[in-house]
Amino acid sequence: MSHTSLAADDAVFARIAWRILPLLMLAWLFAYIDRVNVGFAKLQMATDLQFSDAVYGFGAGIFFLGYVLFEIPSNLILHRVGARRWIGRIMITWSVFAALTAFVRTPLEFYVIRFLLGVAEAGFIPGAVYFLSQWIPSKRRGRVFGIFYLSLAGSGLIGGPLSGAVLAWMSGYMGLAGWKWLLLIEALPSLIIGVLIVLLLPDRPETVPWLNPDERRRVTDALAADVQTQTGALQASELWRSPIIWLLVLIYFLLNYSAYGLSFWLPTLVQGFGVSGTLEIGLLSSVPSLCSMICMVMFGFSADRHNERRWHLTAMFLIGGLGFVVTVLGNGGLLLGMAGLCMAAICTQAFPSLFWAVPTRLLSGMSAAAGLALINALGNLAGFFGPYLVGLLRGTSWGTNGAVYSLAATLFASAALVHVLPSRLIDRPEGEQG
Question: Is 37 in contact with 97 (CB distance < 8 Å)?
């Protein structure tokens, strides 16, 4: 490929990224805030409603049972009706259930509304990944996914201080508890963004007026070249029988165990360092997200530039696992404890940007829609077990330290399993340029 042609491709895909990424990033940012803000609500809700750690952990995690059950059907519908309509529908419906969480009174009501929130959100992430794979060729996905997943880290950077401020300043306003205001206020942006997605998000490169015929050809040629390099690409009917798919599911499950274990319990862990004010807890909870945002972009660009995934993922997982160990060794001290949480967040918030570039090399078309949903659905079962088991372990003789060590162990196991993945899947073919 000539330098002139490569520069023209760079310009086209940069324009595409600027057109589609900001809205998707806003959607994921507020979606994740709505998903995990119950961790901040717990600081007041658990006392108001007399919820034990086990009740809270089960309610936080049951979200993922609804999410998993409807993940694959949701993504297959998205493949048929288009991302604009379906992702917009997802955003609007889950904003409604997120707001309704403010009115739960009993553990059963908490479980039911969290389950329905999972049903409403099912399909968003694999749908977004599938949507991006219809616009961006594989050799550019590491950096694009890295930018997209900045919104995951950004959710902590924005959601932490926002949640802490609402709890501190809105408690008792108009007779409502602070945790109720928290859930209501943070649901509103998701509703607005859902409407904007329906109105503004384009479906496919072939249908947009802001690409000229030559630019459309460049996009379709790059995506067609991807299909030609997908040696051994799987058909939808083969997904359940593929050892590679199940290995990816296992790795993603282990990663999510640690990621959601940290996300749902982060405010409580920070509180355990001797921090009492809700605003201070919110501000400190945002620091690990800031660290992960910086490292997320660095890892994504480095992996693309060096045509390498395996050792980048390994380094990320080991840093995260060591971070959890440092958190325990800090023995409740604020400085060392926060340093450990920052290291852990580098992995637990940044890993999806590199991970999702792997299965998209193996899957395309309908098999991509189904396969990405399958990996995400089964892997996200860890979102149930992570928060719930952390809650259970905190109530045993293992205590908080045992719970945090379990989060570290899953990251160390993931680092080992990455080296079982075949080279054709995790590393680029020789000669493929970035």
Answer: no
